[in-house]
Amino acid sequence: MFKAIKKAYLFYYTGFSEMNKLGKTLWIIILLKLFIMFAILKLFFFSNYLNSNYKTEDEKATYIIESLTNKTIE
Description:
Helix content is 80%, strand content 0%. The chain contains four helices and no strands. The protein has helices spanning 2-17, 21-45, 49-53, 57-69.
């Protein structure tokens, strides 16, 4: 198992180290976009609805169960 992890690490390490400048720049852009999507947007646009509207764990569980089971089919 350890050999497989080491081989995978070396595969990606050599691939990234031998990459040209354009490839490295594109990977930096991809990682920056992922950071913006998951870290920054979550903070500003996805509030913690359960903690702000329900105080106890039982109220939160009841809300989740009701919202999952009481769906109407149109």
